[in-house]
């Protein structure tokens, strides 16, 4: 039960929420393949920390925007683990600017990573999941995809797009034993939010009913639940992990 003995692919596992997801799944007994974009040293540390929890772990460099890279990463995962039961689409970026000053390349970069990357990874695993009639897909959306946020039209569009993708894929795959859900974190303490100006961070914390930023492990535990055997009758849902921010 849980995720014990399952084989999981996590995108963006070198840092932040993705690293916490890898560690949580590993602590619960899942074998892990995860990808990273450039942080090789941090990826090595994550893989080692997973192995120390007694499971197999492999880090693969892969740009989720690139279909060939994604195919190669999924191929490496299938070779290393023998099967893929769980896919967590976590890799994501921000390129914040107000609408009028946002560069077109920054709009494209965010959509390509957060939304197209999610599509490419699902496409790469879904045939095998359909054959085995089992799969758990969890996509990282955001409270910003639910509510919007000034300065983030690209990011909000990508994360709202992830919700539409999640619900559509859930409808297509439900009868094949594959669930597709999204987790929408609020304001979580990672490199992504550390890059925000101090005034914006203070304002964000003030809008959280729980009165604090979230920890990456808060998100990881929700992802692990949706990735578990027990969550088999939950599909097409968006689970906010945000201290009440999106209420
Ligand atoms: P983070 O600390 O900036 O880490 C991002 C991760 O994504 C890193 O592992 C990075 O790899 C990887 N990545 C970035 N671009 C990639 C690409 N093109 N191909 C493959 N991997 C790539 O971010 P985070 O805060 O943990 O966020 C994780 C997810 O949660 C994202 O989807 C984010 O949008 C979402 N989220 C975060 C928050 C928050 O408050 N932090 C709130 C809501 C939603 P490298 O280390 O190699 O660069």
Please outline what is shown here.
The chain is of the alpha/beta class and 247 residues long.
Can you tell me about this structure?
The structure is a single chain. The protein is an alpha/beta fold and 247 residues long. Helices cover 48% and strands 15% of the residues. It has a single domain, classed as NAD(P)-binding Rossmann-like Domain (Rossmann fold), CATH 3.40.50. Strand 2, helix 2 and strand 3 form a beta-alpha-beta unit. The radius of gyration is 17 Å and the shape is globular. Bound molecules: NADP nicotinamide-adenine-dinucleotide phosphate (NAP). NADP nicotinamide-adenine-dinucleotide phosphate binds next to helix 1, strand 2, helix 4 and helix 7.
- End-to-end span in angstroms? 32 Å
Tell me the structural class. alpha/beta
Low-confidence stretches: none
CATH superfamily placement: NAD(P)-binding Rossmann-like Domain
- Total domain modules: 1
Question: What is the total tally of β strands?
Answer: 7
Molecules bound to protein? NADP nicotinamide-adenine-dinucleotide phosphate
Q: Overall pLDDT, averaged?
A: 97
Roughly how many Å is the radius of gyration?
17 Å
**What is the CATH topology descriptor?**
Rossmann fold
| Percent of residues in beta strands | 5-15%
User: Count of helical segments?
Assistant: 9
Sheet with the most strands: spatial strand order: 3-2-1-4-5-6-7
Residues in helix, %: 40-55%
Using the coordinates above, name the CATH class.
Alpha Beta
Shape: globular
Quaternary structure classification: single chain
CATH architecture: 3-Layer(aba) Sandwich
Q: Sheet bearing the most strands, described? A: 7 strands, parallel
User: N-to-C SSE series?
Assistant: EHEHEHEHEHHEHHHE
